[in-house]
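Dock pyridoxal-5'-phosphate; give full complex structure.
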Amino acid sequence: MPHTGLVAAESRVGSRTIAGLINELADSPGPRYRALSSAISSLLLDGRLGAGTRLPSERALATELAISRATATAAYEELAAQGLLQRRRGSGSYLMLPAASRVAGPGSRVTRGPRGAEVIDLSIAALPGLPGVIEAAAAQLLPELGRYALHDGYQPYGIEPLRVAVAQRYADRGVPTTAEHILITNGAQHGFDLILRATLNAGDRVLVEQPTYPGALDSIRAHHGRPVPAPIGRDGGWDPAAIANALRQTSPRLAYLIPDFHNPTGFLADTDSRQRVAAAARRAGTPLVIDESFVDLDLRPAGSTVPTPMAATSANVFSLGSMSKAVWGGLRVGWIRADPDSIARLAVIRARADMGGAVIEQLMAVRLLAQLEELIAERRHALREQRDVLLAALGRQLPAWRTLEPAGGLSAWVELDAPGATPLTHLLEQRAVLINSGSRFAVDASQERFLRIPFALAPAELLRAVTVMAQAWTDLADGRLAPPSRPGSLITA
Ligand SMILES: Cc1ncc(COP(=O)(O)O)c(C=O)c1O
């Protein structure tokens, strides 16, 4: 059976599994061993094989791929020379990430490309803080901080004023909520990890949209869960029938969904789809994890409203929220909304791991939430312009590529006129444009026809990026091949 998806760290991958993953990638001209090593390095670098995975023996791989053993050996040697394979005598060959890519985080990403060119980083869909805003929030919290410093400061549920402020936002959106329904976390990613810890057993299925946010896939796999994909609709929203079918057929332990300005597509699920999905989840007995990280980044015309949160449809919903997308990722403040009993269970689990979040950031978050509407208005204005510049440039320079206008969020999901997104991203990296191929957002090896293009950068950079992309796509079509890529960041936001 071909393997679908990432193979977890310290796991073992069989020769048939790896052959299944490689087939589509190894089909390139040049020496066979190089195509093989390049295919394996792509699988590692785009996350489909985890660092620490033990590869099959050279003999087993050679047999499975019907190549000579010398070819398999040469491919492994090349991977070892690139720092991607560790060969342990007597125990096999293990994939590893080279030292440069092990430090996670945007700060670790390259800022200079080949020959000193400035890198355009489209690998992450996140914004810097608005000028002056974060500093002002930090400067204003000193008097309050003094009051908190009189106590021990351990608050596993989060500080009360922030729980109250977050609860009020849900109440304003039509879901009766009190502070007891809220657990403050170190971001939405942390919140999802806690929910997985609380609910998932090894081997359990978790339904996800395909494409989906790769950080969620990584978390599910880190907890030894099995992501099950349901295709997203092609018309700018969910395909509720596909989600309902997947729920019925696979009875997943959880479903993780992003109805509000979905990453990577920017889609918005409508009220009818939400009701149908909630009903299907109820029938399947599957709790929903609803990631609302992007809910404030609505880019539709002024006056449009976002449907009532999924939490209004059922008690069996965990909602995830975050300050990261609308305000700043460096704050590391997010939350879970759920019924008070679940929140109490999650607080016990979180206390075991980190005792509680930092009081300083939470105090800043209280201040920033109070001015959120103002901040968002400024964000939306810039983002609409950036989105429009990007789509217009794509229309001019790459008219055969297709995209639906994202209703919100930070990225466009672009369909290429032929498969080849991964080789394109490798070539772009050499030309100082960092971007993720669609396969990074897939459970399986699919989505190779897609690219996620964030519009979080300034218009001039977006225009430059599209020009580089158009040239690279032409060069690829002309048969000029991209050599194997080197790793960039471990984070895909
Ligand atoms: C859908 C989605 N959820 C969660 C996160 C992580 O957010 P946080 O910074 O709040 O942990 C991201 C980051 O890109 C995201 O796109």
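Observed: The chain has three domains: 15-97, 102-126+375-477, 133-372.
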